[in-house]
Design goal:
Mean pLDDT: 96
Low-confidence stretches: none
Number of domains: 1
Largest sheet: 4 strands, parallel
Shape: globular
Radius of gyration: 14 Å
Strand content: 15-25%
Strand order of the largest sheet: 2-1-5-8
Number of strands: 8
Structural class: alpha/beta
Distance between the termini: 11 Å
């Protein structure tokens, strides 16, 4: 079973209320057992102000520190994925996450200045998955296990 960012599968859970539908990811979810998760929507809702990571903290454009919501949202998403895999008698084979996201970004995230510039780093959910030994990639990589 694979974990997939719900926004990539067309779910409207992005901070602005939209999605980041990616055709090859949608196709992947139709051909493989997947659990769709959004570490942000349950704790923060949408639409809302965008968030970037600065100094290890998740901060919204309007200056609100939402780090706790991101940490708990990552934990919630992992529990959901772990439970779905257990219920299906599967193991988690990897994750396809939204590039550059403060939750799901893998390798690069926005730099925290809300200028559209990238910096090295991982989002909170990607970091959690990596710490658990889960292979993580983004929709930009198009590498299938």
């Amino acid at each position: 079973m694979y974990i997939v960012s719900a926004c990539l599968a067309g779910r409207n859970c992005k901070y602005d209320g939209g999605n980041n539908e990616c055709p090859w990811v949608v196709d992947f979810t139709m051909k493989n057992k997947c659990v769709l998760v959004c570490p942000e929507i349950g704790r923060l809702g949408a639409p809302r102000a965008p968030v970037e990571i600065t100094g290890g903290r998740a901060v919204s454009r309007d200056g609100k520190d939402v780090t706790d919501e991101f940490v708990k949202g990552a934990e919630d998403a992992w529990k959901l994925a772990e439970s779905a895999a257990e219920d299906a008698g599967e193991t988690i084979g990897g994750a396809i996450l939204k590039a550059n996201s403060p939750s799901c970004g893998c390798g690069t995230i926005y730099d925290g200045a809300f200028r559209g510039k990238l910096a090295e780093g991982d989002g909170f959910f990607a970091k959690l998955l990596k710490s658990l030994g889960i292979a993580v990639m983004t929709e930009k990589e198009k590498i299938i296990w």
